[in-house]
Design goal:
The protein is α+β, with helices and mostly antiparallel strands. 20% of the residues lie in helices and 26% in strands. Strand 11 and strand 12 form a beta hairpin. The longest helix is centred in the N-terminal third of the chain and has 55 residues. It is elongated. The relative contact order is 0.16.
């Protein structure tokens, strides 16, 4: 007898799977695009914030490094090695240092000299007509400490060139070392003069020309009046000098004066010796204004009303609304360690 029951078809009893409708697909795509846009916004915002932080950090680094560089040189100012007795035949008396420098201009009378509102001219060895609104410059001079041999000690200027053939030193290796062994101690040191000032600089950053200021240096071994770019992002350099009073018991500076005021000081008796104005300098106060080289949109967002900063004179300065660079002033006082009553 044949059974009347049928076998179920293979698809019977299984749940049918429905696909997405067009509306559901559009909604899903819209939500995905919103998530991608939100992630991109967060990413771009993070990059802009990081760039703003980097700009501020770069300005901070430039200001701190400029102070360290000039401060280290100030501590060398007036150095004259005294580890050994000089050759009796070459001892030049009370004015011996002056005889080691060709021409002995006023800029080399002492270890420090400065120009107010102008850049020192290494060719004429003098200051230009000053302008209070312009950056200052400083001349720092000292002698080499290579008394242990001609290849030891510091005998290079700030540009990395050797001063053994500099035009404004009156001795060379042949006369200062003598006719003995090439490795004998030199009888007389070599003269080094480093000059620091600001110079305009154009930099190419991200396809755009950026106008900025740079700390420049000229050494007496360069043989020219050109300054070498040492550090970019420095907009202003203001220097004042702490002078010692005639009171023999006074230790701290009596007052801080500009370079023009120091040059105008009359001869005074300090510690029993008559010295000119620059011989009274016992401290140097250096102020620089550092600026960021680039500006991100995060900085621009905070500059709609114009940014402000405090300059080296303690006054608040307003920037144009279109100028979104970061500016900050840095000030530090350095003591003159090698102040000597004897002139060069």
């Amino acid at each position: 007898m044949r059974s009347s029951l049928r076998k179920p078809l293979p698809c019977q009893g299984l749940t049918r799977q429905a696909g997405l409708s067009l509306v559901e697909l559009m909604v899903a795509m819209a939500i995905s695009l919103m998530l991608v846009a939100a992630a991109a916004y967060v990413y771009v915002g993070t990059r802009q914030a990081q760039r703003a932080i980097d700009d501020v950090a770069a300005a901070n680094d430039a200001g701190a490094f400029a102070l360290q560089l000039i401060g280290r040189e100030v501590m060398n100012a007036g150095f004259y090695p005294a580890i050994q007795s000089e050759n009796p035949a070459q001892v030049l008396g009370a004015g011996q240092y002056k005889n080691l420098v060709v021409g002995a201009p006023a800029a080399y009378d002492y270890g420090l000299f400065g120009c107010e509102g102008g850049q020192f001219d290494p060719v004429t060895r003098s200051c230009p007509a000053g302008n209070d609104a312009q950056p200052d410059s400083i001349v720092i001079s000292f002698f080499t400490g290579d008394a242990f041999g001609p290849d030891a000690g510091q005998s290079y200027d700030c540009t990395g060139k050797s001063v053994r053939t500099a035009d404004d030193t009156a001795v060379n290796d042949a006369t200062r070392i003598g006719s003995g062994s090439a490795y004998q101690q030199p009888f007389l040191p070599l003269f080094i003069s480093n000059r620091y000032g600001l110079m305009p600089t154009t930099m190419r950053i991200e396809g755009q020309d950026v106008e900025t200021g740079s700390l420049g240096c000229n050494g007496n071994a360069s043989g020219s009046g050109d300054y070498l770019n040492v550090l970019s992002g420095i907009e202003d350099l203001q220097i004042t000098y702490g002078v010692k009073s005639t009171d023999p018991l006074a230790v701290s500076p009596q007052s801080f004066l500009t370079a023009s005021q120091v040059s105008a000081l009359p001869v005074a008796t300090i510690d029993g010796v008559q010295v000119k104005g620059w011989g009274r300098v016992v401290a140097v106060r250096v102020c620089v204004v550092a600026q960021s080289l680039t500006t991100g949109s995060k900085l621009a967002e905070t500059a709609t009303a114009g940014r402000t900063f405090i300059d080296c004179n303690g006054r608040e300065q307003n920037q144009a609304a279109s100028d979104t660079r970061v500016r900050k002033s840095y000030t530090q006082v350095f003591g003159v360690r090698n102040r000597q009553n004897m002139t060069y």
